[in-house]
Design brief:
- Helices cover about 60% and strands about 10% of the residues.
- It is mainly alpha-helical.
- It folds into two domains: about 70 residues, no CATH class; about 70 residues, Winged helix-like DNA-binding domain superfamily/Winged helix DNA-binding domain (Arc Repressor Mutant, subunit A).
- It has a two-stranded antiparallel ribbon with strand order 1-2. The protein has a two-stranded antiparallel sheet with strand order 3-4.
- β3 and β4 form a beta hairpin.
- It is elongated.
- The two termini are about 30 Å apart.
- The model has no long low-confidence stretch (mean pLDDT about 80).
C-alpha cells in the first residue's frame, strides 16, 4: 500500500520544487481534512479536535490521483476528460479535425450533443490557454477552423 502512495506522489510532483507544488500540498491536505470531516461521526475527538487517521490520508491520496492532472493544468476535470476521451481518439483518426468532427465524437462518447457556442465560448478557451489544443484556419474554407492536439 505504501508503494502505491509513493507512486501517486511521484506522479504528482516532478523533481524541481516550485510554487505550484506548495499549493498542491495544501490542496492535498484540504482533501485529507475533507475526508476526515465527512467521517466525523467515526472519529475520536480529543479536546474538541478531530484527528485525521492514516486511512484518511490514503483515501485522500487515491482521490488526489484522480484529479491531480486537472489541478496542475488549472482546468476543470471535465475539460481534461473531454480531451482524453474525445480529442485524443480524434487525433488517432486524423491529425486535423473540425468542430463537426468534435461534435460527432462527443455524441458517440457522451450520448448528447455539444453546442457550437458551448464549445467555442466555454471549452475552447481552456484548451487553448493550457496548450492542449491548437487552432488553425482552414486553407480551403476560411469560415472553418481546424483543431489539432499539441504534443505534451
Amino acid at each position: 500500500m505504501r508503494k502505491n502512495v509513493e507512486e501517486i506522489l511521484k506522479k504528482s510532483f516532478d523533481e524541481r520544487v516550485s510554487g505550484v507544488h506548495t499549493r498542491l500540498v495544501s490542496r492535498i491536505f484540504s482533501v485529507i481534512k475533507s475526508i476526515t470531516l465527512l467521517n466525523f461521526h467515526l472519529r475520536v475527538k480529543k479536546e474538541g479536535v478531530l484527528e485525521a487517521t492514516e486511512k484518511d490520508a490514503f483515501e485522500a491520496l487515491y482521490l488526489w490521483d484522480e484529479i491531480y492532472q486537472s489541478q496542475i493544468l488549472g482546468v476543470p476535470p471535465f475539460i481534461l476528460e473531454l480531451c482524453n476521451l474525445v480529442l485524443r481518439p480524434l487525433e488517432n483518426e486524423k491529425k486535423l479535425f473540425t468542430l463537426s468532427d468534435i461534435q460527432r465524437k462527443y455524441f458517440e462518447v457522451f450520448g448528447q450533443s455539444l453546442l457550437d457556442w458551448k464549445f467555442t465560448r466555454e471549452i475552447l478557451p481552456y484548451l487553448v490557454n493550457t496548450g492542449l489544443i491548437q487552432v488553425k484556419p482552414d486553407e480551403k474554407d476560411k469560415r472553418r477552423k481546424l483543431y489539432s492536439i499539441t504534443e505534451n
